[in-house]
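From the methods appendix. Each design record in this collection lists the tokenized structure first, followed by the designed amino acid sequence. Records were kept in a plain field format so they could be parsed without special tools. The example shown here is representative of the layout used throughout.

RECORD:
FOLD TOKENS (121 positions):
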């Protein structure tokens, strides 16, 4: 999960600092590719991340709470990525960045809550 979460998280922040990366000649994706390419990759990674979190439910034997949480959290992440695609301004990218920080915290909390609900531990 963390592998597919990292690019949308970091590229959203890098969109905000795109000019700084370009000025420093640091080849961060938003500094060397068009925003259309970058936001397309953000969306692609977000969709794969969402799918993986849903596949985790049957593979790991998770319950309804985790499954519902993963579906809802992934939908919000995808919606946020789509908003950046439509409007790749730094402020919009920073909204996605903010959500991307919150996302794994809530997803991991859902794992713990689901476990507690199913086992009582």
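DESIGN:
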């Amino acid at each position: 999960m963390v592998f597919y979460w990292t690019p949308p998280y970091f590229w959203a922040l890098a969109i905000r600092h795109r000019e700084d990366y370009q000025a420093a000649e640091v080849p961060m994706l938003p500094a060397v590719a068009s925003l259309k390419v970058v936001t397309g990759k953000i969306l692609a990674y977000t969709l794969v991340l969402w799918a993986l979190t849903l596949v985790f439910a049957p593979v790991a034997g998770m319950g309804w709470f985790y499954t519902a949480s993963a579906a809802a959290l992934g939908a919000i992440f995808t919606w946020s990525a789509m908003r950046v695609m439509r409007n790749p301004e730094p402020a919009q990218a920073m909204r996605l960045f903010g959500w991307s920080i919150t996302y794994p915290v809530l997803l991991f909390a859902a794992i713990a809550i689901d476990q507690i609900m199913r086992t009582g531990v």
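APPENDIX NOTE: Residues 72 and 102 are 13 Å apart (CA to CA).
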